[in-house]
Every structure is written in C-alpha cells, then in structure tokens.
Amino acid sequence: MKHLVVFLLCSYIFINNEAAMTDAQLKAALKLLRNVCQPKNKATNEQIEAMHKGDWNQDRNGMCYMNCVLSMYKLMKKDNTLDYDVGMSTIENQAPESIKVTAIHALNSCKDAAKTTSDKCVAAHEIAQCIYLDNPAAYFLP
Fold first, then answer.
1. How far is it, in rounded angstroms, from Cα 14 to Cα 78?
2. pTM value?
3. Helix axis angle, 60-72 to 45-52, nearest 10°
4. Fewer CB within 10 Å: C terminus or N terminus of the chain?
5. Long-range pairs for 103-110 at CB < 8 Å and ≥24 separation?
6. How many C-beta neighbours within 10 Å does residue 84 have?
7. What is the pLDDT of residue 18?
C-alpha cells in the first residue's frame, strides 16, 4: 500500500502538476523515489552515495535501483532507451528553475546513452551515468 501511495504522489507531482516544482518539492519527491526504489532493489546507501560521488562500478542491485528511479520518472521506454520526449516535457513544465538548464543539457547529451538495451537495469545505469558525467556538480537523480 505504501508503494502505491508513493507512486501516485510521484505521478501527480511529475505528470499532472501544471506549475514548476519548487526546490523543496523536488527534494521531497526525490526522497520518496529513493525510499521506494532502494528497498525494492536492495541497493545500499553506500552504493547510492558512490554513484553521487562518481563511482559507477555497481552490481545488479545498484543498476536496477537506477532503472526503478528512471521508470518512476517515466523516462524509460519499453525498448529500454531514454524517453527523451517525456523527459523534455517534464523538465520544461515542472523542473525547478535551479536545475532546468543543466537537466535539459544532460538530457540532450544522454538521449542515446543506453547501449545495452537488452537489459533494462544496465541500460538505466548507462543513462544515469551519462547524466552524472554530463555535469557531476548538478547531478539530480536520487
């Protein structure tokens, strides 16, 4: 039941919100995503923090955590590639001004980052790593 409530809240925030989110709303939404995706994929705090520090040497749990995050954002297509159009729409309509420019740049840089499309977790990992490498200081995934 908790996951359903979190999913519905995230869906509302990311899809149905007509105004841009504030930084506080984004922070809360990212926390919710992490709270759902981390236990679901058994990713450790150390793994997630390592990705935030540029260590992308992850096991399956860490990679599948990123798939969960990107899927909850509705950024993964069924063919395990980045849904560029949904991502751009979400950023343009709902991202706080503080991350909008860097997020658009990252999406443009990473639209073809998924190379291992036969595996959804590896593909998501490749996309998330590309987003990080595009601008480590502005990395915005949870």
1. 19
2. 0.84
3. 70
4. N
5. 103/138, 103/140, 105/134, 105/135, 106/130, 106/131, 106/134, 106/135, 106/138, 107/82, 107/131, 109/134, 110/82, 110/134
6. 15
7. 56
Buried b (16+ CB within 10 A) or exposed e, 16-54: eeeebbeeeebeebbebbbebbbeebebeeebbeebeee
The CATH number for 94's domain is 1.10.238.20
Domains identified in the chain, total number: 1
Averaged pLDDT for residues 51-79: 96
**55: domain range?**
2-138
Reading the block at residue 104, the tokens are 């658009």
Q: Which amino acid is present at 45?
A: N
Single-letter amino acid, residue 139: Y
Picking from 64, 59, 65, 75, the residue whose alpha carbon sits closest to that of residue 111 is 75
pLDDT at 21: 84
